Amino acid sequence: MWSIALPGFGQFLNGKYFKGAVLLILEFLINVQANFNQIILLSFHGEIGEAIKQANYQWLMFYPCLYFFSMWDAVKDAGGGKDSNSYLPYVFTAFFVTVGLTFSSNLTIFGMVLGPVWLPMLFVFPGVIIGLIVKKSLNKTF
Predict the structure, then answer these.
(1) What sections of the protein cross the membrane (predicted)?
(2) pTM of this prediction?
(3) Which are the contacts of 93, defined by CB distance < 8 A and separation ≥ 6?
């Protein structure tokens, strides 16, 4: 659960200090380069157009993979996810969030552009669901 708060924290909790430090440094680097905190603030204030202008998408595209890898790795190191396909929900979610981020500046839902925070967050749900379905299907097959 600590990796949800900040990538790398789950690794620190598991005693993987080097890995945690690397993930935390990467999180700060991507966060600063993508202007992510400003984007979040603007999005929460409803200033989606300004959030889109402030976003550095070339850096922001790295964040979903870092975030969900950090969560999966912390769960794996803590002894969770014993089956060989436990990574699938994380992979599919990272993929869907990245796709959501790709279309976040021009995809409209209910006549609104949701921007680089809200649309990727909505794409978490289909990513988790499809990842769990694929994982369950593969576990039944093998």
Answers:
(1) 21-45, 57-75, 87-111, 117-134
(2) 0.89
(3) 64, 68, 124, 127, 128, 131
